[in-house]
Amino acid sequence: MSKVFLTRRERFNAAHRMFHEGWTDDENMQVYGKCSNPNWHGHNYNLFVTVKGSVKPDIGYVVNLKTISKIINENVIDKLDHKNINIEVDFMKDVIPSAENLAIAIWEQLEPHIIALGVELHCVKIEETENNYVEYFGINDEI
Amino acid sequence: MSKVFLTRRERFNAAHRMFHEGWTDDENMQVYGKCSNPNWHGHNYNLFVTVKGSVKPDIGYVVNLKTISKIINENVIDKLDHKNINIEVDFMKDVIPSAENLAIAIWEQLEPHIIALGVELHCVKIEETENNYVEYFGINDEI
Amino acid sequence: MSKVFLTRRERFNAAHRMFHEGWTDDENMQVYGKCSNPNWHGHNYNLFVTVKGSVKPDIGYVVNLKTISKIINENVIDKLDHKNINIEVDFMKDVIPSAENLAIAIWEQLEPHIIALGVELHCVKIEETENNYVEYFGINDEI
Amino acid sequence: MSKVFLTRRERFNAAHRMFHEGWTDDENMQVYGKCSNPNWHGHNYNLFVTVKGSVKPDIGYVVNLKTISKIINENVIDKLDHKNINIEVDFMKDVIPSAENLAIAIWEQLEPHIIALGVELHCVKIEETENNYVEYFGINDEI
Amino acid sequence: MSKVFLTRRERFNAAHRMFHEGWTDDENMQVYGKCSNPNWHGHNYNLFVTVKGSVKPDIGYVVNLKTISKIINENVIDKLDHKNINIEVDFMKDVIPSAENLAIAIWEQLEPHIIALGVELHCVKIEETENNYVEYFGINDEI
Amino acid sequence: MSKVFLTRRERFNAAHRMFHEGWTDDENMQVYGKCSNPNWHGHNYNLFVTVKGSVKPDIGYVVNLKTISKIINENVIDKLDHKNINIEVDFMKDVIPSAENLAIAIWEQLEPHIIALGVELHCVKIEETENNYVEYFGINDEI
């Protein structure tokens, strides 16, 4: 039986600042422009989590979306929503809070919980604005 | 010459109920929650059909979208729109009407007609709410 | 001090059937077409509730959105979500379940609770599909 | 000749914190919940500015949208985008940074510039999330 | 019985050029910028038509949306869709093809047909891009 | 280190006509229908450009989006926006202006500039209407 991909969207609103620890504010401004404003700025983030698996014939689902939603909320949204990504989010410690690094860190938070359901984590997508998004598919030799 | 992927969106509004025949209403409620309401509920479904092929140099299209749209409407939309998926849709007989099973069944309805156009069916995507969607890519050893 | 209008969106998925009690199924079909399918169909409804009031200087809000959201959920969404509007919704008893009648009935459900907050109910908007919506502003001699 | 309403959308990303100066952090948390997080959070704001006027017969516009866009950017967006609304925005000094107060303050920033174009400012709308927005129509006895 | 407002969206794709007959191409360019490109450009237009009326108790509708849709398509969409607004649309002859003038001209096309249904035409809204729209409410002393 | 996919959306409004040089207007109409209107029509196009690369540890980006945006604007948007695709766009000369051919031609415009940044061009997606889009992934034996 072939695989179906199932995607759940969750949302969080957070503050951040693009900032490289070893650089001065001026150096950060030169690289990141207004995204490095020392007083922070923020976004409405859309998070899309895609899992992959066979449809279980008895229930007709790859996996129950309520379970996926609960995992995402407990492990990711509750830690990010209405937070400052630079200073309050344990899994973003020591990482520049770009959408790229968010996607990778969220993948790492979610993967063990998704695997425990008997399905694979396929993609973590972060939409930062209506014009920008990133996608991460895990460590994958084929990509 | 390399391939282009062409996607057409069509929409349908339908009623359904998540329901496993062999279980009581209570058992269904335990698994599916309010999605198993015996009096039905419904959705505005978005269906995205993606085909893959080379661009035909004389017409500049992979395939005429009007042809794709007609195939989707005649074989899928006309059977689903303003219907009850559990009891009125021939190709969903004996299947739990999840988005996953809808995607697989729609794939099977469409594939022979798409292949007859000289292009491949690549993906059937069903968006059930703004927060949930599934994608099916056919029986595929690489996935 | 002048007024600010505050709008909250909530969503529900429901089944319905356009159906006039005194008419046969054929007569209903003639007036409503496929919207009268005896086996039901359904929609993802968007509900927008707009209240009007002065900004309270101490808190900076017209009213706390969490309060508005709770009122809408307890009085409207919990009764409509994943339900059959024709047969399960107390405040839609004996009413044809059009978007128009939904908007009027939801207004009546919400108004006393909104007034109790010291603000006015201004508009109830129901979006049934991406192409159709209705707005109701209450009984209003100026409209 | 009757009036046409012309609306321009502009966007800004900003950080803020719901916070009443005279209250402790705990008191603020009790009223505002997570929106009062001392480390800030943020949003992608959509700003819709509606002006009202007669169509000028020679150019076919109520007013050139490029002019409107320039006014909004110079007087509002440049001051808000990638900023902290609580501490960096001159026209939000001493005001609780709710969407309501943002709309009123933006109205005051824009109105003289809009009137100078020979048209009226009709509405300032602030969309804070996909579920919440406010509208302000100025000081208006009829509202 | 109070009034309900009912809105139908229809879409058309058209070419146009902002162009004042009595001016040279250079003068047009100075006023309209790239919108005056002599070789045309185009848009996906969204048209929202709002009618106002009482809910008819026997059918539960202000008016059947299929009737509204048919009127809009026959009188407006069929004349605009995949057309050049400057040179092919009878009701835009001798008018600068701005969104403002489109809204007014569409109002004039629709109003007699809407009134014939026993309801009022309330608003014609034209969305030209995701950032710009105009609204026209007819000749109205109160506006 | 594994790869992240980064997508930037840019927009352009343009006129075009589906037209095969060697055919009469009638023959073109027979194949393309109203899309071949000799007086042109147009669209609001959404262009999504996806690049693939490793996250640079010092800046936290695959590549700075401002750089991507500048490349897309200088090489693609400035040549297409408010233009006639059939007669004004150098890289669409002698090509039927379908979404498919646009995607391929835009890929060719962008690829050398993207590669020069040390990342790969992964996908060019063109959305012509809310119901239609195409995706091109370059010349790729695996597709």
List strands and helices in order, with pairings.
Six copies of one chain form a homohexamer.
Chain A: E1 4-16, H1 25-32, E2 41-53, H2 65-80, E3 83-84, H3 85-88, H4 99-115, E4 120-129, E5 132-136
Parallel strand pairs in A: 1-3
Antiparallel strand pairs in A: 1-2, 2-4, 4-5
Structure description:
Six copies of one chain form a homohexamer. Chain A has one domain (4-136): Tetrahydropterin Synthase, Chain A (2-Layer Sandwich), CATH 3.30.479. Helices cover 31% and strands 30% of the residues of chain A. The first copy, chain A, contains four helices and five strands, in the order E-H-E-H-E-H-H-E-E. A five-stranded mixed beta sheet of chain A has the order 3-1-2-4-5. In chain A, strand 4 and strand 5 (132-136) form a beta hairpin. The model of chain A has no long low-confidence stretch (mean pLDDT 96). Chains in contact: A-B, A-D, A-F, B-C, B-F, C-D, C-E, D-E, E-F. The A-F interface holds A 18, 20, 31-33, 95-101, 103-104, 130-140, 143 and F 1-10, 52, 55, 58-62, 64-66.
